[in-house]
Specification:
This protein is an alpha/beta fold and about 250 residues long. The chain has one domain: FMN-linked oxidoreductases (TIM Barrel). Strands 1-2-3-4-5-6-7-8 form an eight-stranded parallel barrel, surrounded by eight helices. Helix 2 crosses helix 3, helix 6 packs parallel to helix 7 and helix 8 runs parallel beside helix 10. The longest helix is centred in the middle third of the chain and has 18 residues. The chain is globular, with a radius of gyration of 16 Å. The chain starts with a helix and ends with a helix. Bound molecules: SN-glycerol-1-phosphate (1GP). SN-glycerol-1-phosphate binds next to strand 8 and helix 9.
């Protein structure tokens, strides 16, 4: 399966929802149960990653998911330990607004040879961390984009497109109390032809509808599955919100 093609083909039909799982948060069998529920609720793929990752846990979870779930398994690495041969693809990402070159090109250079050897599909992605930024903002030494400065996000998005990155991820930080402002999403979407991913703080169908209507092509939710007693219904609420949006 070529995951980038899957994303582009799916987007011709509908905007995408991805469920983010942190392999440290549950055992592989539980991750499979959660992922199956999410798929039955309408999620289009599973992202796997976290700010700290144990490679053995990641491998076990990626393998179990690949064997048991029919949607793509995409790595969302928080560092060089976030690589597994069992995933379908990796978001090969650069934290564009980090003040530390390690997170812009350093970790990427250290991880690239092993990724090449494993033959995992890479999908190039610019990653921008916006206020409040959460753990990833702190770990990634991000010079956080102020929420009231959509033009700054757009400037980075244009630069990312000029550098050949195919996707642009606007991240508010996992567990953020507010998702990325709609004005910022609109501004980024208007400025580039890149596929725009938005994550952090999306919790309700209404949030999802607003983010999708502002121009996000792909919406990511993580925290919500950890907090929900009925994962299928919660994901369905988000997916219904996304599909109801007109942009
Ligand atoms: C984190 O944007 C994602 O990278 C998901 O955020 O946990 O707030 O859904 P939440």
């Amino acid at each position: 399966m070529n995951v980038e093609n899957y994303i582009r083909q799916t987007l011709k039909d509908h905007k995408i929802h991805l469920t983010l799982l942190d392999p440290e948060e549950q055992r592989p069998e539980e991750a499979v149960l959660i992922a199956k529920e999410a798929v039955s609720g309408g999620t289009d793929g599973i992202m796997l990653g976290g700010s700290t990752t144990d490679s053995a846990e990641l491998d076990a979870t990626a393998k179990a998911l690949k064997e048991n779930v029919d949607v793509p398994i995409i790595l969302f690495p928080g560092n060089i330990s976030g690589v597994s041969q069992y995933a379908d693809a990796i978001f090969f990402m650069s934290l564009l607004n980090s003040s530390n070159p390690y997170w812009i090109t350093g970790a990427q250079a250290l991880g690239a040879p092993i990724i090449k050897k494993m033959g995992i599909e890479t999908i190039s992605m610019g990653y921008l961390v916006v206020e409040p930024g959460g753990t990833v903002g702190w770990v990634g030494d991000a010079k956080l984009i102020p929420r009231i400065k959509p033009d700054l996000a757009a400037a980075y998005a244009i630069a990312a497109e000029f550098m050949g990155m195919k996707l642009l991820y606007l991240e508010a930080g996992s567990g953020a109390n507010q998702h990325i402002p709609e004005k910022m999403i609109q501004s980024v979407k208007k400025s580039t032809g890149s596929i725009v991913i938005v994550g952090g703080g999306i919790r309700t169908g209404e949030d999802a509808a607003n983010v999708a209507a502002a121009g996000a092509d792909i919406l990511v939710t993580g925290t919500i599955v950890e907090k929900s007693s009925n994962i299928k219904d919660k994901i369905k609420e988000l997916v219904d919100g996304i599909r109801s949006a007109k942009d």
